[in-house]
Fold each of these.
Amino acid sequence: MKLKRLIAMIASAALLAAVFAGCGTKQADSGKLKIIATIYPEYEWVKNIVGDADGVEVSLLLDKGVDLHSFEPTAKDIVDISSCDVFIYNGGESDEWVNDVLKEAQNKSITAVDLLDELGEAAKEEKLVEGMQTEPKENESGEEGTEYDEHIWLSLKNAEALTKRLCDKLCEKDPGNKAVYEKNAGEYTEKLGTLDKQYEQTVKEAKNDTLVFADRFPFRYLTDDYNINYYAAFSGCSAESEASFQTLVFLADKLNELDLNKLVIIDGSDKKIADAVIDTSKRKDVKTLTLNSMQSAIGDDDTYTGIMESNLKVLKEALN
């Protein structure tokens, strides 16, 4: 675990112990089934499953706009997780802190759901494609280790499969609301499946089959779903923000070689790399398009399916 996280965890644990001591290690029980989801897309899936089920409270851990890659839990977060009934987290390197929190959980019957683990063989390793700027990946022992792509929510097929798994988990935990959960999950997965088919049709009818990203690339699950080729400056979990001249030239050459006039970035980008790639390509007709990775700011009126519908429109333009 990174030193900064370790220090934060020790400080939080000390404060957590003080909190529990001050309240006799017993939290006030509202009588509701308390569910906490770490990030927005998965919170949305759970909210759609729960619907108007009686006696259920669903909370989002990370505020909208907080990136899971840099998140560190506060003492309050640890207390909330420790006393909830169901804790749903993404899994992967960014969630290494979860194991330490769960070991000290006050509620020993907490149901913890690691969604990356739930994907099983469908989980994908981080992949470096031609032209991507690389950086060393190390595990806690200091050796280079396997890192899984954490951006599982950017696949509608994953969303559908994980909604079903979450429904099963909630039915086991709260059988009294099983009928409600199964009905809501069925309706929601049908909606996800319809949108998935729209993506398939859009890609099938597209003029091109390749995307060029002047940014990090968190969309591997999505592009693999529909057999879309791609080139990008960095991998999805990269901490890099400055592209080398070699990377800029590579991406610019791909625009020229493939005769593409669309360049893609992700939400929150300052467009500096995109502008540099366009300048290097010498093309005057390149348009920059933005795909929403749901890693940064989410509007109050946004929904998971709404954002994926908007991404479909962008994808259609990018491939034509």
Note: Residues 16-28, 138-142 have pLDDT under 50 and may be disordered.
Amino acid sequence: MAAYISVPRDLSRVKTNILMNLTRRHLVCFGAGALVGVPLFFVLKRTGNISLATECG
């Protein structure tokens, strides 16, 4: 049984890389994760449990 994959003829919608071979979506998601993760790390680090801070942040 052969599997067929349709390939679009219009390549204008192909995502272009912006910075360090990352697309816009990659950069937005990485930025959102950093926006949540970095402050969370420092808040949890204040409790004195560095292992918990590294696992969660």
Note: Residues 29 and 35 are 10 Å apart (CA to CA).
Amino acid sequence: MSLPAKEIKHTKGKSDEASINILVVDDNQDNVELLDALLSSRGYAILKAYNGEDALKIAEEARPHLIILDVMMPRMDGYEVCRRLKTNDKTRFIPVIILTALSDIDIEDKIKGIEAGADDFISKPFQKPELLARVRSLVRVKHLLEELEDARNVIFSFATALDFNDPYTHGHSQRVSELSVRLAGFLGLSQQEQNNIRDVGILHDIGKIATDKGVLHKPGALNGKEYEHVKQHPIVGERICAPLDFAKPLLPMIRSHHEKFNGAGYPDGLSGDDIPLGARIISIVDLYDALTSARPYRRGMSQNVALEVMKIEAEKGYWDKEILLSFVATLKEPPRCTA
């Protein structure tokens, strides 16, 4: 959806505010114009929507820094708009102020707004200084979130570049990520757990940045010293990601993706359910992609041959049998559309 030029009003103001877009959503045009006049006079760029459907479209396309959202609207009320914004990966980090006509916000309404994901509440008629103060506060929050997202994007870009720089692992992490999410969904994991596993799939081998390339690309079996060197990459990956707040729940999975169900893996020799579930998922998909991909010393196996090899290893105690069987079942299903 292209935004009509008349719906974006830029006025002169403070340089740090002139680039800030605020989406105002209300079915009452007078209310929208009132907020437009107030906020644009402070230098903010105003986007306008008069119903929930348009608000969702504009928010996804324009990604405003803040949304001021009226509750009482026809067809789709503000609570539902907020809920949809907060469950959409493209808009969930945009702060939302909910406006209500109640002079004293009812506790049930506030709970409803909190459950929808609202970041703040203001009752109408609002006090201008209060509204402006809350706008400034939430815009600062959005800037902090953007900085965190930038750090996230850098580390993911770094991991992807590392992966694609090797002709023998080209696209490996992306494939592991996608297949692991399918398996996690098949196992009934929550959306947040699936999101975490998607991220781990991309980042699980990032520690190989510290692995000697001659060892990593050696066209044959590794000697004992070389193998011990390679075994450090899960620990290195954990250390690389540890300073990033978003990666905190991912660290145990990154560290443990080479553990084996019988305790014969590395780096900690974990066994059974002591291995994080996400790591058990990643390890199976990681092995499958490695077996079906070409290496300097062998051709890639067919799917059937690779799965037979994995089943034999599962009988030896290497892998979680239940997860492996679920993975086999997952491969028989068509991929889900995530668009």
Note: The chain has a mean pLDDT of 84.
